[in-house]
Design brief:
The longest helix has 33 residues, at 87-119. It contains five helices and two strands. A two-stranded antiparallel sheet has the order 1-2. Mean pLDDT is 79; it is low at 3-17. It has one domain (24-200). By secondary structure, it is mainly alpha-helical. 68% of the residues lie in helices and 6% in strands. Strand 1 (71-76) and strand 2 form a beta hairpin.
Length: 201
Amino acid sequence: MHLPKLASIGKSASRLTGGKLRPPLKTLGPGSVSSLLKIALDVAYVLLALITGVLLLLWIASIFIPIDNLNVTVSDGADGRQMPLTRPLLLFGVGAMTAYFGGFLMILRGLRKIFRTLTLGDPFQPDNVRRLRQIGLILAIVTGGVWMAQGLVAARLAPGVMEPQGISDLLTPVFSILVVFVLAEVFREGARLRRESELTI
């Protein structure tokens, strides 16, 4: 039994691809998957910045606009409760949304800088370790803020209508936060190995 030679296999593959061997899809550097994701992050960052800016203007306007005889319905699914819209309630609601989107805006800002280094083909930079730790910290603050805000709304503003988040609702966000911090340590180790190799050379 004769096995086909590697050269003949290469020629067959070359014929199948039109005479040119196509390289595998790059993950780092210009024209790679990282550069495409960087473009997507840029678009998402601009959109999120616009949303955050509009919410911030709305929060400022909430200080001055009249809200007499206005009601708001707080609901969780089918049930709901109508209650008068007070200025503290309006400021709290709009401020919480502004802080929520602002937190994710800061996360996207850090991710854009990280993917910029991936596009340049130089991911293991000390700055990326700091950026990943900041992303993990912001994600933890946003998660804790949402958990406390929903508990406050359920306990004070709409008791019996909305249910506060339980500990089980925090499992997925906490897992994501831990993954980010683990990635930060991976990048820190990569930066250390790169620095040692540069010193060796």
